[in-house]
Amino acid sequence: MKIFQFKTLAVIASAMVCAQSAQAGTWSLGASALVSPDPYRGNQTRVYPVPVINYEADDFYFRTLTAGYYLWKDQENQLSVMAFYSPLHYKPGDSDDDRMKQLNKRRATLMAGVAYSHNAEWGTIRTTFAGDTLDYSNGMIGDLAYLYKFQLDAWTLTPGVGVTWNSKNQNKYYYGVSEGESRRSGLNSYTPNDSWTPYVELSANYQINEAWNAFFMGRYVQLSDEVKDSPMVDKSYTGMLWTGVSYSF
Q: Signal sequence: where (predicted)?
């Protein structure tokens, strides 16, 4: 079962917003590795290589798998319409659990919506709201976080706390078990409602020189009851560790 959590992608997108204050016309290229434990039954922690490709313009940005267009941008406020590829999926044939092998495939999709951040001396408020554009889940997700940046010579540390909202359709598609799947697999049928998932995170950046930057980010996610109660899930938490280097020019 090769699952790349949606929360992981959200972390990547948001981390690139907070990790660097790139000037317009700046490219960043690099390499990184990401470790994320899967909450699904019968799976294990995996390591994913993630290329770092970022571009920041006055009215447009591209950050790894996320692209957006600014509707409002100044030093304090950034509002954009954006779209990103969400690789969250489930392939029954990759599972090592016999019951999970009987479930239907869950597909990756293209999410689109709006993102807004407000920067002040007391910290940063970061929000996103997006929906499935390919009608696989017909689901929506939202995220709200507070972050505070510390500058220590070449180091930049940004701890944060937040919460993610998943709509009922989002949870049903990725964590629900239909009656037909229940009969085939022996797992109990399950229809979740919407959910709120809290998390804490920490990002760290080290400016090696004017061009090279090393970064690290970690997030701990406490899964909601709606997700934990799914027969597909056998963990109460998930999270990620992401580290790499980038070159700006």
A: 1-24
